[in-house]
Amino acid sequence: MSGPRVNSFFLGDSSGVNFSIILSPRDAETGKLQLANCSGSKRAGDWNLDVTPGVEASKVTVSLTRTLELCLPNATECCPSPLCRVETLQVLACRGSVMLTQLLIQAEIFANSSFRGNVSENATIIPNQAFKPLGSCPCNLTAGACDVRCCCDLECTPDLQQLFSGSCFPGVFGGDVNPAYDQLCSSQTMEYTPEWFPFLCVQSSLDNTPFLGYFYHGSISTPKVPSFKIPLQTSPGRPFTGYREGDPIITEEDDYFTVPQQSLSGQCVGNAPVAYLHNFDVKCLTSLESYKEGLPHDVRINSGTADFIQQNVVYRLITDRGKFITESENLLPAEVLCQNVTFAEHYKFIWKDKNIEQLNVTVFRGSLCDGEILTQRFTVEFLSLNSTNGEEPFENPGYQVGEPVRAANLNASDPLGSLNIWQPAGRGLCASATYRPVLFGVDSYSGCILEVDINEDCSFLRGNVTEKLNALIQATHIGKRDNSSYRDLNDWVEIIRLDPFSSNVSTGGLKGICPDIPANLNIHIISAKVGAVQGIPQQQILAVQISYSTVLWQFQCGLGCKNTLSFLPITASVQFIEVPAQPPLPVTRYQKLYAEFDCNRNEVCWPQLLYPLTRFYTGEPYSQSLAKGLFLAFLILLAAIMSNPWFSKLWNR
């Protein structure tokens, strides 16, 4: 101990245990401590022993009762020298005359003194960590005193080191800053020794140890655990510059603003961040047992200029639960436990340029009971501040992959149109199938099954199938861009419709056979990349064509032909074709004649025959490749000379 007080603990039941403290002088001949007995007391010289009993452990405190001031002239009860006390103490725990345990304390206490002298202004010279360890004794943590178990501490006297010589700190912390590594020839360890050891071992001084790298450039090491916090650019002179398309929206606490969304596997993720200018409409299944509340609606979001916006929340009550409850178990009324939960949340972000101006939230609440399955709905919509009627929800110059294709019916008073494909449900019948919008850049294929009677009129069947296919396309024009305006006709491309082919083939009154049924709808959308905004490619639709493929429908007779109904599958496919924004340059006559020398079009590249001898070859030094090339040329020349007939005659002579 180096202070006037030290604490320790006695583990176990302390009832009936007597604690005592004694001074342990050393034997003058052997230098060993004298044996102690249980006849001591709780006071020995200037030392007191205090014991605080506990349930499973008792606190033992040893304290010094005298002052630690340096002696003035003609003063007593003080320290005559800076090293005030050097004593060895023993604390004993006895039950009767039987000693249970003992604690050996080496006290080396200095007198209290204030610094009197000149302060040096010389800075501490830190050695280069690449060639010399920063600290030769890392366990030396206390200045001017001996650290227990630190055998490399030069302030520990031999008497103190004898107390803990068998339990020194091992490894680098204990002072072994240059340990012998496994590849060293003098190393005796065989734990990580390579199989070529010791035939190819390393003979080097320990001053050139690879462990020096552990202390080199430690301040710039990359952390292994990534942070999910997003630091805002709020440093002086560098304010938050706003959002770009696709950036996550940030809250006041520098966290993501999250709304439940669907993952790639189709499951809902509750803590998915909302991306700027990305709309979505998702549905998530949950039960009362697995229900969890989302982000609180009192959380403020960053507007993009380091200002914070409060959510404008409107709560509504759900009266018709049939649209949300999809499954219910038969439980007794007395066993049903109900709770008021969120059925749907609709977020509307009002934005301008790179900033969010307003956030309106509509929350629909209702009662969910135990045993019921709830279909929650979450929608996020970004509305431009310049659009007052909401008919232009985006101001992006072009389409992004995954966004719905904008459609319009410019020949009607209401220009809002739709371009959809089927989303079958249940048995896959067309009567129960719903629609889903066509997404830009996503090739799709869907269909449904139409029930057809054996006595069905072929003309009526063609008209019925055509009507169901045309119901998918309630539009005359498709928007070139995602911000196409209904008031500008140049922002739209007209849908090119190719009518189905009809051969007017007569079936001769046969039942159950109808030719030229337009059962397949083909939608071809031609697009091109027309530029980029803030590094994000923007794509534009150039043309849209709709065509039909006809099939021969024939009634399929089952066992015994007792059923008079058959099935006709009708399909709709969407294909996106990307073309260059500008037509490519025509092939010149030179390119046509010398196409065989083009290394990108032929497997054999004659211009690169001597490629290893050029400066572009970096597989080996240029001098080596040149020497090998000259040696190869010498061998070829030698072979050519030796194959000549006159060389054979000269050799025979």
Can you describe what's shown?
The protein has 653 residues and is mostly beta strands. It has helices spanning 158-163, 458-470, 589-593, 622-642, 645-652, and strands at residues 5-11, 18-23, 43-44, 47-52, 57-64, 83-95, 98-110, 261-262, 268-269, 280-287, 301-302, 308-309, 312-317, 325-328, 338-352, 355-369, 372-384, 407-408, 418-423, 434-437, 444-453, 473-474, 477-479, 492-497, 513-533, 536-554, 565-578. It folds into five domains: 5-107, no CATH class; 139-234, no CATH class; 248-384, no CATH class; 403-506 and 513-578, no CATH class; 606-644, no CATH class. Helices cover 8% and strands 32% of the residues. A seven-stranded mixed beta sheet has the order 18-23-24-26-25-27-21, covered by helices on one side. A hairpin with a 2-residue loop joins strand 3 (43-44) and strand 4 (47-52). The longest helix has 21 residues, at 622-642. The radius of gyration is 44 Å and the shape is extended. Residues 221-239 and 388-395 have low confidence and may be disordered.
Radius of gyration: 44 Å
Q: Main beta sheet: strand number and arrangement? A: 7 strands, mixed
Distance between the termini: 103 Å
| Overall geometric form | extended
* Overall average pLDDT: 79
Q: Give the helix/strand class.
A: mainly beta
Percent in helix: under 10%
User: Order of strands side by side in the largest beta sheet?
Assistant: 18-23-24-26-25-27-21
Topology, pairings included?
Layout: E1 5-11, E2 18-23, E3 43-44, E4 47-52, E5 57-64, E6 83-95, E7 98-110, H1 158-163, E8 261-262, E9 268-269, E10 280-287, E11 301-302, E12 308-309, E13 312-317, E14 325-328, E15 338-352, E16 355-369, E17 372-384, E18 407-408, E19 418-423, E20 434-437, E21 444-453, H2 458-470, E22 473-474, E23 477-479, E24 492-497, E25 513-533, E26 536-554, E27 565-578, H3 589-593, H4 622-642, H5 645-652
Parallel strand pairs: 13-16, 15-17, 24-26, 25-27
Antiparallel strand pairs: 1-5, 2-6, 3-4, 4-5, 6-7, 8-9, 10-17, 11-12, 14-17, 15-16, 18-23, 19-20, 19-22, 21-27, 23-24, 25-26
